[in-house]
Amino acid sequence: MFHIRRSRRPGCVGWSKRHAPPRGMALLTAVVTVAALAAGCGGSSDTVVGPLPCSTPGFGPNEIKIGWIYPDSGPIASALAATRSGFIARVEQQNAAGGINGRKITFEWRDDVGSAARNLEAVHELVDGAHVFGVVESTTVASGGADYLRAQGVPVAGLPAEPVWADRHYANMFAHAYVITDGPSVDVYGTFVKARGGTKAAILVSDVDQGSSQISEKVADSLRAAGIEVSPERFVYNSNSTDPLQIGQQLKDAGVDTVAGALPAADISKVMEAARVVAAPVKIFLSAAGYDRRVLQQKGATMAGLYTYMTYVPFLSRTPAHDRYLAAMRAYAPELQPPDQELALVAYLSTDIFLTGLLRGPACPTRASYIQTLRNVTDYDAGGLLPGPVDFKNWGQLNLCYTFVQVNERGTGYELVKDPSGADQWCGNRLPSQ
Question: What domain count does the chain have?
Fold first, then answer.
C-alpha cells in the first residue's frame, strides 16, 4: 500500500512505498497549450508558451495547487483510509487528460488526525502557508476549519458527514449529497417501504452519533407521509452497552414489521440476528449505512434481506462512469483492493466536484468567481455516478433520487432493487416544510 509522505523540499509532495524505494504514482501525460499574446504599441509581439499568466492563489505558470485533508492517523484513520486512493485517482486521471487548461493539478496534504482543532490548524497551514487555491476534505471533522475557510472565501469540497455541509451560510462548501440537514424530508424512503409491504415501523437510533439520529428523523417523516405508522417508542442502540436481544424483544413487543435507521452495518446485523432469535415479525430492515462488503464477508447470512440506499449509483449497475472510475483506480491507486469501496468512490466524487468548478470556469478564476461558477451548476451527476442531478444553486436539501440495494438470500452479495417502473433509481418529491 502506498504511504504519503512530505517531500524534503518545501512545497512538494513526495510518495513512497513502505519499505521500498520511492517511485511515482503513475506516468502522467503532460499536455501544454501554446498561447500567443500581442504586446506593445509598436506592433511587436511576444509568444508565450504555456497557460496564460494568473495571479490567483495556487495558480502557477504550469500548475494549480490544491489542498487535501484527511485523517492519516488517529481513531478514524482506518475507517477513512480508502479515501486517499479515491482522491489520488481522480487528480491523476485529470492530469493524464491534460490537467485544467494546460495546468497540472498538484496538491499539499495534511493529517487532521480526526480532530476538529487539528483540522483548523491544517486549514491554516494549507491556505496561509502553502497558498493553495482551495481544499478537498475527506474527513468527518471539516467543521473545525469551516469558519476560517468561509471567512477567507476558500472553496471546499468534501465528505458530507456533518451539518455544516448543508448550512446555507457556507456557500463555499460543496458536496454530492446532504444527508444531515435541517430542511424537509423527501417521500422516497416512505414510497420504498410501502412498496415492500411495510405498515408499521420502528426507528432505530444511536445514542452516540447525532448524525445518525438526524438521518433517522428524516426517514420517519417520510414513512409517516406515506401512511406508514411509526411507533412512538424510542429504540436506542449502543454498540458498547446494548444487548441486541433486548432490542429484538422490544421490536417484537411493538409489533412492527419495519425497522429503519442509520446504524453501521455491523450494528444493524446484530439487531437483525436478535430479531430472528426472538421471532419478531420484522420483514423489512432499512439502513442508511448497510452497504459494506467487508462487514458482509464477516456476517454473511446474518445480513440477508437487509435493504440500504445510497446517494450514488452502486457498482452493481456497472455504467460507463464506473468503468472510468475503475480504470483510474487501476492506473493510479492499484494499492486499494477491491477498488469498488464506498469511501474511495465518495472521495473520488468530492474531488470531481472540485475539478468541475475549475473545468467550467475561466482559465484564471478568482476564488469568488469559482464559487459562483460552481453554485450555478444545477445538473451535476458526476458523469453518471449519481442517480439524479445535484443542484448546487439550491444546496443543503436532501437528494431527490437514490439507489436501493438488498443483501441476497445467501448473504453473499447485494442485488439492485428497481423501482416499480423498472428504473435503477428511485426518485421522488420534497415534503412540505414543517
Answer: 2
Per-residue pLDDT reduced to its tens digit, 188-211? 999 999 999 999 999 999 877 777
Q: Is residue 337 part of a domain?
A: yes
Whether residue 35 lies inside any domain: the answer is: yes
For residue 287 the three cell numbers come to 439502513
Does residue 154 share a domain with residue 117?
A: yes
Whether 50 shows a pLDDT value over 80: the answer reads: no
Measured CA to CA, the distance from residue 191 to residue 189 in angstroms comes to: 5
Distance, CA of 335 to CA of 42 (rounded, Å): 58
Across the chain, mean pLDDT equals: 87
Sign, Cα dihedral of 6, 8, 9, 14: negative
Q: How far is CA 352 from the centre of its chain?
A: 11
Q: Which uninterrupted H or E stretch holds 3? A: strand 2-6
Conformation bin of residue 387: beta by default, left when phi > 0, alpha when psi is -120 to 50: alpha
Q: Are residues 302 and 193 in the same domain?
A: yes
Q: Which of 25-34, 105-114, 120-129 has the lowest mean pLDDT?
A: 25-34
Phi, psi of 201 (to 5 degrees): -125, 150
Query: Is residue 26 included in any domain, yes or no?
Result: yes
Which grid coordinates belong to 53? 499568466
Residue 351: how many CA atoms within 13 Å on its side-chain side? Answer: 30
Tens digits of per-residue pLDDT, 392-431?
A: 999 999 999 999 999 999 999 999 999 999 999 999 999 9
Residue 180 confidence (pLDDT): 85
Nearest to 286 by CA among 420, 405, 411, 423: 405
Say if residue 335 is in the same domain as residue 304.
no
User: For the domain that residue 77 is a member of, what is the CATH number?
Assistant: 3.40.50.2300
Asked if 127 and 137 touch (Cβ cutoff 8 Å), the reply is no
Give the residue numbers spanning the domain of 273: 188-310+400-427
Regarding pTM above 0.85, the answer is: no
Instruction: Enter the DSSP assignment of 101.
Output: T
Q: Are residues 135 and 7 in the same domain?
A: yes
Q: Indicate the pairing of strand 135-137 with strand 63-70.
A: parallel
